[in-house]
User: Fold these one by one.
Assistant:
Number 1:
Amino acid sequence: MYAVSFADKPVIRSSRLGFVLSADSTFYKGFVLRGIETRSFDSSWKPVWGEVAVIRDHYRELTVHLQKSSGAAGSAAGLRLDLVFRVFEDGVGFRYVFPKQPGLNYFIVGDELTEFRLAGDHKTFWIPGDYDTNEYPYTTSALSAVDNRALVASSTAIAVRVAPDAQAVQTPLMMKTADSLYLNIHEAALVGYPAMQLHVDGRALSLTAALVPDAVGNKAYLHAPFATPWRTVIVSDKAADILTSKLILNLNEPSKVANTDWIRPMKFVGVWWEMQTGKGTWNYSDFADSVGVDGRPVPNGRHSANTANVKRYIDFAAANQIGGVLVEGWNVGWEDWFGNWKENVFDFVTPYPDFDVRELTDYAASKGVSLIMHNETSGSATNYERQMDTAFRYMQRWGYTSVKTGYVGKIIPRGEHHDGQWMVEHYVRVAEKAASYHVMLDAHEPVRPTGLQRTYPNWLACEAARGNEYNAFSDGNAPEHETILPFTRLIGGPMDYTPGIFKLRGYSSVPGRQVHTTLCKQLALYVTLYSPLQMAADLPENYAAHRDAFQFIRDVPVDWEDTKILAAEPGDYLTIARKQKGAENWFIGGITDESPRDLRVSLGFLKKGRTYAAIVYRDGAGADWKTNPEAYTIERLTVDSKSVLSVKLAPGGGVAVSLMGIAAN
Ligand code: NOJ
Ligand code: CA
């Protein structure tokens, strides 16, 4: 058993630890204590990229050596298990270590029994514990009210939903207690093991680890020695501390990529929103299995990834200091890519006839822009594993330095899940393979991140949550959505949310579709939703209509020296200021949910004695996400560390501010 308290208040009551193993179905009792070790650690490290330039890793560690007593049944007698606890100022991490030992060499985990018994019926921000997706909208409820059935049933815009336990939720799980403690439960360093979801017992107010099973119902196949991922509990009486916690990163291994000079955070655009909104298509033809009289596929005339159109995006990127252009739908296979559980869909090296890779590579290079590769696997991980070296050699041949992968659909190996052990190992293999070819990675539909970006800094971002794209193909994301994400999904790592939509209504042929934010809130997301990879997701023509507001997207960086959380409450509002790495410039993003708010931002974090040229992008008079989302006002001011900004946020609104240091003379 273990327990966690914060300032003498119980946070986790005495809770069970242990396993059901193939080698011992009671690997949770009958242990004797063989010894303990303690140590302290305090050191700092520099991430290759991040929200801050330097991270302090400071903890006390306790290792507990356990052994099954000699009276234990059968062959279990004498088996050993170690528990390692690390206590930080902002929380706790613990993991199980199976030492190398006779009698426990290769073994199967039937269940992990880790419990988190809570001290109350906390306010909880949750999505269903689904084996295949994290793309649900959040529900805020009392813990005891968790029941995911209605949400799972109604979420038909999500391609694959497998949520057999009505009381299961995903992590990072964010909670707030009645006396205003903020708790976040997640895991760190998920490698070689399935994702941990949590089963809620609403009566006992306890959470139990629910590992995502494999095709035959087992949880994990292990070979000792093996250390499980860390189970993490971040605790504070300030919401801001949850956001600044570096506990998850600190519990991950240092970079395995020795030379990281080639890894560069960047902004990108792409022929993407065209397809998401139905203006264009990924597929070249509308027929999967027939050709024209000339024996060739019949073009549908709406294929976005054509050479001329991609050049238009390259020109736009070059003109606006945007580093990358993502091209989806460039390779053969999109006619029947999805929904057939088909194993060999794409080969990742054969372009459609209207996509001239040589011409585009040369053109992009001449403009100083990188093309971003797209490898949609449609869930067929086996096919991708077979093609991966070929795919990365193709990227190398044509100068692609980053790839966006995707896993839409049911997984192959058939019966496996996106969040099971097999796929967890697959995502890491892809990150390692990408690193060996000096390619940066953005994975869509993977398991949610657990801080592995420290170990694989080329793994810039993941989706693994409900992105802006849901505003294109479903009823969309509620105005509170982006105030919850930083406290939940982003605790594990950066998200490729694809912000920056300027045309917030009338972009879809489906009536009623609209983005549930104002234009200024889309700008603020570049600061509040941290990622080293940020898309400017809208179409060039929609940016051309608001060149003055687009200036913020041109200016905002994607790598930071420092971060200050100025105001935060999950589900309600969030204001963050970040300092550009290597420059005396700051950027502020402030967002609200559906409620309007008055924001006062004191600029005390600016360098004393320095003046800054500020541009404030704020919701205009009468702005409202629903009725008037595109109203904004831009104001230019000179400010210093004594200045205070007062801003009104519209319902679903936001504010973005750039503060460029004026050289002292
Ligand atoms: C879903 C991804 O989230 C989206 O970004 C992508 O365009 C489609 N899959 C097609 O790969
Ligand atoms: Ca997705």
Number 2:
Amino acid sequence: MITMKFGGTSVGKTDAFAQVADIVAHAVATQSKTDRPGVVVITSAMSGVTNTLIDAAKAAAAGDEAPYREARSSLLVKHQLVAGQLIEDGVERAGLGRLFDDRLREFERLCRSISVLGELTARGLDVVSGMGERMSAPLLAGVLRAKGVHAQFVDAGELIITDDVHDGAEPLMDLTVARCRERLLPMIESGVVPVITGFVGSTRKGIPTTLGRGGSDYSAAIIGAALDTDEIQIWTDVNGVLTADPRVVSNARTLPELSYEEVAELAFYGAKVLHPKTTTPAMQKGIPVRVLNTFQPDHVGTRIVTADHTSGPRVAGVKAITAIRNMNMITVAGRGMMGVPGIAARTFGSVARQEANVLMISQSSSEQSICFVVPDAAAPAVVAALQAEFDRELERRYIDEIAEHPDIVIVAVVGSGMKGTPGIAAKLFTALGSHSINVIAIAQGASEANISLVVAEGDADQAVRSIHDAFELDQLFAGE
Ligand code: ADP
Ligand code: ASP
Ligand code: MG
């Protein structure tokens, strides 16, 4: 039994839908010959749709009603065009047309209330942002039926039961597993392919939530783990996980095999190809994840497995480089901090109370400064909280300064083979030095699978490219 997730570009337009239908039909045919047949499909919204929905809702909150009106008609056309080109059956097409119209009417109604109230709540935004998947999944199910696959749309609001955190909800796994098995296994056993909305879930009370941007990958892993499928396939627009973002490094190469831990590091530090939480459910169940290219389906892509199950050649050293943008480095500095216990605890205690995500921490041994990196959006609240926390220390000048440094990027160099391989740091800094790139801060995890560097926004692309060159990652697996 396999789980197949298709991302936004994989369902971006008519040709892509047709391609996905071929891939699924082929998988269904192949699977039917196995001992445990079954295919489960999860889909993202058509590319650009989630952004359009969110932007329109935000504009409505600011009093601008034009974007949601335009979105309503453009999104109707976008979905109907695919249905019109790929589904011949008039009844099926009319049914889908009504469904799109209902969803978009609801979207317009919501945006109207947002505009009247002048306020967009996190809860309201989750309702709006999940509507893209609630159109693309029924559409894909229809396209698959037109191709002769017994597909049926299922809303993940019925399956993934989450906590009530909006835009980043966590599944309540016991409930979710029970719902997935109860609802999906009978369908699969009767030869039906469930086509499920990615990204969305709902609370125990039925209130819509989302798993956070890019969360359809996570949906696939949750559902795949709940059903104990033999593989979770993530179909996207590149040949698997590459040594760097191909938009930044044109000669980036596919990594044929990675461990869950390596992928988790890469995703956490900005490799958009997988949502950072994707590996967790898969790893717990030991289910292999494959990242494949919808537009080059014969390419082997990347296989993600437990570290000791890897079968490919061991890479001694660096495997991949990522960059995570829109970060802010906060420094707490002062000579009076030296030897004063509890400064770090109080610093991170107050950061935690702001619920800010800390991506990197570095403290020099002289204890004269602590620096850490948070997303730009969280920085003002974090600085204000620290200023309040260290009010007295600032007044007495034990702490001289609490400062923010916006527009910085974390570049992360990842590879489990870096552990115990000498000379990596030297090579890394030589590469950056030779391009006159200033390294603002450095951190290395105890696992030695990751070295993170802070550089200025303007240096980020060059930093990634020069590290990629220095470690000759374009030559990785070149002989195979
Ligand atoms: P989908 O819509 O299929 O979920 P995403 O746009 O979320 O696709 O993720 C795929 C994109 O991730 C690629 O097109 C690529 O530009 C980007 N990306 C960033 N880093 C990497 C990497 N290391 N390997 C592969 N792709 C990467
Ligand atoms: N459609 C959602 C987003 O754009 C989820 C996803 O694509 O994974 O964030
Ligand atoms: Mg994605």
Number 3:
Amino acid sequence: MKLCFSLIFFSKIFVAANGPQGILYPQQSESRELFSLDGVWTFAISPKFDQDIGFKNQWYRKELKKVSKYVIPMPVPSSYNDITQNATIRDYVGWVWYERTFFVPARWRGEQRVFLRFGSANYETVVWINGVKVTNHSGGYLPFVAEVTKQLSYGSENKVTVALNNTLTPLTIPQGRIVFPNNTDRYPPGYFIQEYNFDFTNYAGIHRPVYLYTTPRSYIDDVTVTTETSEDNYFGTIRYSILCQGCSKDAMLYTDLLDEDGANVASNFGPKNKISFKRPKLWWPNLMHERPGYLYTLKIHLKDGDVEDFYRLKIGVRSLSWNSSGIFINHQKVYFQGFGKHEDFLIKGRGVDYSLIVKDFNLINWLGANSFRTSHYPYAEEIMDFADKNGIMVIDEIPGVGLDHFGADLLKNHLEAMKELIHRDKNRPSVVMWSIGNEPQSQKPEAAPYYSQVVNFTKLLDPTRPVTLVLSRGYFEDKAAPFLDVICFNRYYSWYSDTGHLELIQQQLLNEARNWHNKFRKPVMMTEYGAGSIAGFHSDPPVVWTEDYQTALMKEYFKGFDILRKEGFFIGEMIWNFADFGTPQGSTRVFGNHKGIFARDRSPKPAAHLLKQRYESIVTALK
Ligand code: GCB
């Protein structure tokens, strides 16, 4: 096998465009207009062996239907993989092209700025407006924005063109590789495959909403908020700092803190200040209070001469701290009862879908869960908003899944992804921990300096939240754990190891969790355990792949969790997975991964009813 990573696929090297520094979610306000570009775009793939043709022939200056032979409609937001009947598009690796036209109102001409913002697109993206490049971005799961004021035509039609490449290489986050088999008996010339070391479909497309929005010339570009509460929770303090662009030195900033009914609680002014007040309504995790997820609104008002801008940020007031045996919110120890999830659904793949978001949060509440991990990449802001307002604690994970070969270039991309994630999610009360990756080859000596740098960088950007890395190597060989605040580990006793031997689960679980704690003296949590089950498969006594085996296995883990919880350092259980999900084709995957407690269509398996009983009983025991 010959490995060829980037030559064909990333033959264009793009210098990051200068843009705004903030990445605030776009919103309509007294001073801002918002216009969605979601809908049906025009789509074309590049010919397999002429990947650069769109760049060479400047497709962005023309209409796609005039330059490509095969142009089809493509929904945005959505993955493109499962939209057609064409296996070439489903499995496509390389440059694809999107385009749409839209009108810009004449009233936007003049004293305004206009921005174009993508919630995410996987992986490498280049964007043109009316044939002029406005930005590019690397990374599949985080937003990017460009000011397009000068490139737009006002009072007339405009065109946005996007080139998107989903190729993963040893330097992307996550990593992948393009393999050219050199056996000409078995493969035609030029044949290649994309390989990657993770167990979910590398869905591609414009996955999250695309917005055009306006701001005044001087505008609120970024806000950073931290909160704390006094030991008895009687006082709450909000510290904020606000970044303006285009402002004169006389510009004034005013802030009002509004409660959920819109009543003013406190006011202040200046770009950096604090608001302290008595009897705050705290942000509590689900089930720790009768009113979880309470959110205030920080209304920010910029006045710069005649120019005014308004932005409203939802914030939760809570304290967050941790020590060697636990994580504390509002000075109370928390126990995580949740799951790993995926952004995954039929047809849309990873595309944002409000019906699915609301359904999933209904199921989360039905289960009595209080948390999830954004395995194995940052989730859409539309999902994170629901976590904030439902009091669901989130372990916010970067797409550093299954990393191997830890070099300086990979580190650079990893740190950039961390920076963008923290920038996006720093103000969210639901985010209670950063996860800098999942199941790396952390037994390798190079993993030690690598992860120590990722942790230090993360703490520099955000000292207010604990940092974890989800581990799968043994406690005796792992090199990353010393740098972490919390040890999260994944293990599949009686599934991948000792398959069928349910009687071993308790012993293995207890020993391993205790060993992690004894060696590193940190809180320990199990972030994955589980078994695959095909809805409708049954047997008694249970055998693997039946729904009965899945529940029997869960019961054994529960016994172990109950013993561990009493020992003080064990802080949570997250089953793998919330729902069945799509994976690459493989002989160990039967039409996807079936460890969901819900099927992919969200119908409950018996495992869901059992988990609901368990999570409800944990809460009752606390009362
Ligand atoms: C893991 C991975 C997860 C997989 C899971 C499995 O350890 O973290 O991404 O889907 O195992 O089902 O094999």
Number 4:
Amino acid sequence: MTAYPELYMIIDGERVSAGDRRTHKVVNPATQETLGELPLASAADLDRALVAADRGFRTWRNSTPQERAAVLQGAARLLVERADDLARIATMEQGKPFQEARIEVMMVVGLFNFYAGECQRIYGRSLVRPAGQRSIVTREPVGPVAAFSPWNFPLGNPGRKLGAPIAAGCSVILKSAEETPASALGILQALLDAGLPSDVGQAVFGVPDEVSRHLLGSPIIRKLSFTGSTVVGKHLMKLAAEDMKRTTMELGGHGPVLVFDDVDVDQVLDTVVPAKYRNAGQVCVSPTRYIVQEDIFDSFVAGFTERTKAVKVGNGLDQGIQMGPMANPRRPDAMERLIGDAKARGGKLHAGGERIGNQGYYYAPSVLSEVPLDAEIMNEEPFGPVAILNPFRAEEEMIAEANRLPYGLAAYVWTANARRQKTIAREIETGMLGINSMMIAGADAPFGGVKWSGHGHEDGPEGLDACLVTKVVHEA
Ligand code: NAD
């Protein structure tokens, strides 16, 4: 059995443990047992990390693509070797089923290998000029990055925050969520063990607002990369604006799923129901508002409810578990508030709607239908195991409902009609769209949103591009 590891920060190559620093208790959400005490950074710790990041950038920016690729590939190999241990640690900290955590490790492996190749294709160009003159366009790493990653993908998010900047030649100070620190440390440690210079990749933890103000207040940091809620994202963008820092913002969503009456309802449900309860719905691209054409609405609700009631909930380390607890006590509280409000406004509850047991942050997979548009849950990202099913008649009404909110991260459409597929692809305001598919991410594909869901991308060539700036050199 994997033991939960010691917790520390990694600052300028040193493992910094608690000493007389403040600490944060890391808790297993399945059992509420304390796993460890996490040291929180002081201002002096953050200053030390900044000095190291500045130094690290000045050397790493001059590394060859082959050197960067060797580190990324080496880390990918180590992550494969360590996959089971890392996945168990992630499940202990965050609650998701072990198999989901293991897939997350492999997602980071794929991303590091992709960027090992992609960093060898950072091209410039020379412009056509009269004889004797040259203008050369080059791409350079943006500089030291302050990266903030949340608790919902404790391995995948740190992997995204580290992979592209390192491939681009940047240094990174990573502050991942204090709730899931050992997973993030495991990803960074693989890079360091594969030869990443110790001042290029660092991990700090702290009081989030203190850390972000301190790091973003420093001119050393040239880029902010944040994944989390829209409200925190807006706050951090304002801090970054003071120093005109580059930003990549992966924020909230409220995923619409349009289901038309030309589909095989059972086939669709077999895909969309497990997608809803993946990671207990704590996914920014989670399918949330099911916008269903009225002829198939009753059978869709009945089939959704039946499959939801069969979802096996329990400790993610146990065999056969399909959904774990929620990651922290804030989430079941939010579910109670949002589902209570929806019911009070006339929404129908078909499954769940209650906590499970009195140990761990469990909340039952839940299904609501006919929820009025002014209910809180129709406007606020639920970030939990609840599906909202509402009937609509016409294609235009369905598109209007999908676009009603200020979010635009992921959307999904299920239809066999080719014309409709094209119309929806054009009309839906979203960063990512799945057509007859819930798979909308891959190492080689840009991941990101529009509107309040943020801007910029991670993954794909676009993720690398977001860590580069352009310089033009005009020679006489
Ligand atoms: P939150 O909004 O306070 O925190 C979200 C994340 O941002 C956490 O990782 C937190 O450590 C970090 N954070 C908060 N304040 C920060 C600051 N000032 N500087 C730097 N980082 C900061 O609250 P929460 O309860 O953790 O999550 C609430 C909501 O956030 C969820 O309901 C969901 O809507 C959203 N969320 C989105 C994602 C995503 O993948 N886009 C991930 C986690 C949470």
